[in-house]
Amino acid sequence: MSDDPSGSNDQLASLKPWASLRYRDYSFLFLLGLFATSAQQMRLTQNLYQVYEISGSAFLLGMTGLAQGVPIFALGLFGGTLADFLDRKKILLITTFGNLLVAITLGVLTLTERIEVWHILAGTAITSALNIVLNPTRMALISHLVPRSHLTNAVALNSSVSQASHFIGPMLGGLSLAWMSTGNAYLFNALFYIPAAVAVVLLKAPPLDKTARETFSLASFLGGVKFLFSEPIILTLVLLDFLVIGFGYYRPLLPIFAKDILLVGPAGFGMLSSAPAVGGVLGTFALLAIGDVKAKGLLALWSFLAYALALGVFAISTHFWLSLVLLGAMGLANSLQAVMRQTSFHLLTPDHVRGRAFSVFNMFSQGANAAGGAEVGFMAALLGAPGSLLFGCAVGGLLTLGCWIMMPGLRSFGAETRRS
């Protein structure tokens, strides 16, 4: 990475929103993220809808979340270790083609009428295993491809990719299910991995620094965990994200709200699935326009609280358009706290441990969705879908208020930037 020693907060704030895209290789990484993550979200939408269409079971929707979560926790540290010890470009290429094969397989099984729920669960688990390697590897490259003065901008742009994919993917997933057969929808999903693979081929990834790289050992394998526990404020933010978003993970229940409560079809389901991403994009663009935010901890706490409150109102809403607005508000709140965490990680993490640190980060972030998917499915089987989300609202609100009152250091966190 070309270094810019004058990366002051004033400069960070004055950068144009798309400044990092002027760097060729970052642009290819940006395109990889856009196509790959959009395809991931599209297929998850298709998976959830097909599971409910085949089974009509909230429990099996929860099992879909569990199938996503098991690889995250079982292989998460391993994925980050690969990113620190092996050629990162080759890892990106292998995992991208792996995702392509999963989409084609599900499409063929559906078109030949051999698809069963366990096939979808297996495909979800394999996809999760591939992405637990792909995502930390992609994120570990960001700081190599832009100057340090552009790092906050690059991270915010990366977050905008994630938010845009959460809009594009579910919307296209719902529309593809409405406009074509489910099998063809999976094959349509597979097409998105072709430009992603082209972006990887064109990307010039810097070689690993062998002089700073550790010798592989159990201690080095756990380096990301050690780093996370060395930063207590960041650890608290990560755990809040895991618990608040996990207990309030509404997405696996959206087929129930769409079909049984709001009475809309696949297209309406796609709109509901995409609404959080609209709010997320608005939040990310606001941060791109504002520049650096000093009160990162305070903004994160407000965001967690707003998420919990919007979740509670969504749980009791029976109006489609109100539900869309509330889902958008949850996406906005989630994007604000996510950018605060990601920027802090990039600024604080040394390169030789970056892949492993981001694997831990990814374990908690994606693990919140996976474990939360299982939890809300089980709770929905006991309390109904609205009751499950009201429970998540209560847990999230109480945890956030508890941290707000008991951790004054978290409220003031972010006034300075450091780098290990």
State the shape: globular
Give Rg in angstroms.
20 Å
- The total strand number stands at 0
- Listing every helix as H and every strand as E from the N terminus to the C terminus, the arrangement reads HHHHHHHHHHHHHHHHHH
Q: Approximately what portion of the residues adopt beta-strand conformation?
A: under 5%
SSE inventory with pairings:
Elements: H1 9-14, H2 24-55, H3 58-85, H4 88-111, H5 117-145, H6 151-179, H7 182-191, H8 193-202, H9 218-221, H10 223-229, H11 232-247, H12 254-261, H13 266-290, H14 296-316, H15 320-348, H16 354-383, H17 385-406, H18 408-411
Helix pairs in contact: 2-3, 2-5, 2-6, 2-7, 2-8, 3-5, 3-16, 4-5, 4-7, 4-8, 5-16, 6-13, 6-15, 10-16, 11-14, 11-15, 11-16, 11-17, 12-13, 13-15, 14-15, 14-17, 16-17
Structure at a glance:
This protein has 420 residues and is mostly helical.
Supply database-style keywords:
single chain; 420 residues; mainly alpha; globular; disordered N terminus; disordered C terminus
What does this structure look like?
The protein is mainly α and 420 residues long. Helices cover 80% and strands 0% of the residues. The protein has 18 helices and no strands. The chain has helices spanning 9-14, 24-55, 58-85, 88-111, 117-145, 151-179, 182-191, 193-202, 218-221, 223-229, 232-247, 254-261, 266-290, 296-316, 320-348, 354-383, 385-406, 408-411. α2 runs antiparallel to α7. Mean pLDDT is 81; it is low at 1-13 and 415-420.
